[in-house]
Design brief:
This protein has 326 residues and is mostly helical. 75% of the residues lie in helices and 1% in strands. A hairpin with a 2-residue loop joins strand 1 and strand 2. The chain is globular and about 60 Å long.
Length: 326
């Protein structure tokens, strides 16, 4: 990832300070303290809090709202952390960014309790800090994430799954958090309605790019490189864009459908994975997914062109370039 400007680095350091303070893993419970420390160490590159802070630079209320933005960045990152803990339970994933997951180290029960505990701290601090308007956005975001997970669960090994259904899932499950990042940053800094909408739309496009790119990495990477198991989606009956495109292809759709129906009856093998990859490539499914990244990237750049030139614009542009080209 590119080097962040010093001012943003200092704000992200404040986000991390609030993250530790808000989770408050405490000295009174050694086990919980150890688990939550592990959770924080497994957190990622803080892209979502960064987008929130950068969106806040476009409003007339910045930099006076800086501390509120940092607190919200910490709370939004806590929502993301809790969702990852729960995701790893569902996926039975042993690794997260190359490190053992909470569920693999401490067991599924403790992982469920940990995710719930982190979310409870989010609720407490939203009320305690008086962040009510943004609290509504965070509440709506958590609801959307849950809807996306339910939609995805109901589509497991469904040979009739569609691209439209997949897009609904990723908007709820992934893009909603990016939308919240940009929306809260804009609103907390006093951006007007049209400006806030533009930044919200930007978050939507970045969220779609992020998820589709992640789906493609499942085809084009390795466990050693990504620090987590690959091809987990297809093995678990979750179909991403390359597979869904192949499913509706007039020539290759029948083969993919037959493979899916067969895989539902038994454990998915490496031979099945190889067959799925071959069909996805032959149908143009992987190229189609890449085209969708380009489409959302172009739309995001179009929004960025309408924004005033400041540090927020320059860093968001660099984040977009990094995500879309990785």
């Amino acid at each position: 990832m590119f080097k962040l400007p010093p001012e943003l680095q200092s704000e992200l350091a404040l986000v991390e300070k609030y993250l530790l303070e808000f989770i408050n893993f405490g000295k009174e419970d050694k086990t919980l303290g150890e688990i939550v420390k592990c959770v924080i160490e497994n957190s990622g590159k803080m892209i979502r809090p960064s987008l929130l802070l950068l969106s806040g630079r476009f409003g007339p209320g910045y930099p006076e709202c800086r501390e509120r933005l940092c607190k919200l960045g910490a709370l939004l990152e806590m929502v993301h952390i809790a969702s990852l803990v729960h995701d790893d339970i569902i996926d039975d994933s042993p690794l997260r960014r190359g490190k053992p997951t909470i569920q693999s180290r401490f067991g599924k029960d403790m992982a469920v309790f940990t995710g719930d505990f982190v979310l409870s701290r989010v609720l407490y601090h939203l009320m305690n800090e008086g962040l009510l308007d943004s609290g509504i956005i965070i509440g709506e975001t958590i609801s959307a994430m849950c809807r996306g997970e339910i939609e995805q669960f109901n589509s497991h090994f469904d040979p009739d799954a569609t691209i439209e259904g997949y897009l609904s899932i990723i908007r709820n499950k992934t893009a909603s958090v990016f939308i919240a990042s940009c929306s809260m940053g804009a609103r907390e800094s006093g951006c007007d309605g049209n400006f806030s909408k533009g930044l919200t739309d930007l978050g939507n496009h970045i969220g779609h790019i992020f998820q589709i790119r992640d789906d493609l990495l499942d085809f084009q990477s390795s466990e050693q490189k990504e620090g987590k198991p690959v091809h987990v989606d297809f093995r678990g009956g979750i179909f991403t864009l390359p597979v869904l495109y192949a499913l509706q292809h007039p020539e290759h759709g029948k083969k993919m459908r037959e493979l899916i129906i067969d895989c539902e009856k038994r454990p998915v093998t490496d031979i099945d994975i190889a067959a799925m990859e071959k069909i996805a490539k032959q149908s143009g499914g992987i190229d189609f997914a890449k085209e969708q990244i380009v489409k959302h990237t172009d739309a995001a750049y179009s929004i960025l062109k309408s924004l005033p030139d400041n540090e927020g614009l320059r860093v968001i542009t660099a984040i977009l370039k990094w995500i879309s080209s990785s």
